[in-house]
Design a protein that fits this description.
355 residues; TIM Barrel; five-stranded parallel β-sheet; four-stranded parallel β-sheet; 50% helix; adenosine deaminase activity; Ado/ade_deaminase; Metal_Hydrolase; metal-binding
Length: 355
Amino acid sequence: MSLYAELHRHLGGSVVPRVLWRYFERNRPDVSERFEGYPDFEAFYTRPRNTLAEYLELHTLVESVQTQEALPYFVYRLIRGAYIFENLAYLELRYTPYLRTPEHLPQHERIEKMAEIIEVVGQTSQQSEYPIVTKQILCMHSKLPYEVNQAIVELAAQYSQYVCAIDLAGGDAKYGDRMDEYTTLYAHARELGVSTTGHVFETQDGCHPELLPYLMRIGHGIQIPLQRPDLLREVAARGQCLEVCPTTYLKTGTLEDLQQLKVVFDRCFEAGVDIAICTDNAGLHNVRLPFEYENLLTQDIIGFEELQACQAAAFRHAFAWPHERQPGSVIESMLRRQQLTHLMGEEIDEPAVHG
């Protein structure tokens, strides 16, 4: 059995439509009553949007119900589904903790409550019945003030038992006017020993090369090979990995056809830039990681060797995978030892031949 690593999944978009609908029916009838029934809700929730900005508005629907009290409900089902249906051995789950705190509180109280959110997600993620190595990535957000984003960076360092990195989210087209803030925060994170990734070069409006030197991985980054292939040599030299989420680009209107990703993979492989294939928002897309793999293969965007290279890259670039090898190689070693033991046993049991 193959086991996989998922490096780019949002807590807000990870809830599959059926689970979210059941929660609304039981706890938020004010939301469920907006729809005629589940099919109507699923069609609304999973349909493609015209732009990334329109697509991101859907996150607010889920963030509003992922309160401290409700998070165990969502996180438990997320981990269960990832283990049973996706064969995940490793999962980095990203979100903005501030957006899970009560909106009616003043900013300083919401900042204080972020630690409680991190602890709830961290504790609920550790499920002995579904043994996935799970860590959090805390997202700074382009719509949040500097003070909140700074607190997010410092909490990432403080809660290293649960958190493996920070991110910057909210739509990469909005970063420009605050670039000095973000580079300062990323530099601060690196000084604190916190790993870094960031949503950048996802859309044509989000090309910010000045952020790249601060990132250990690049969230999406598909516009580098598409629009700025001259940067690929620098990306390869830094050992940065692109977190490519194929279905996202169709859902956000960033790409018209998945075939456009063939250029992304071809140019990255040629330049020696690693790619980890991810889901981004598995629930929002109603798509799981193995389907992302299959879709790329069946449409001849990559071959099996390239897929295996991407799967290996995901474990290699994982911020908190605790082993030197990926789980598949461990299982292969076990099988080889069993075969060797079996062969040695046959030699010992073979009757002696006397002349």
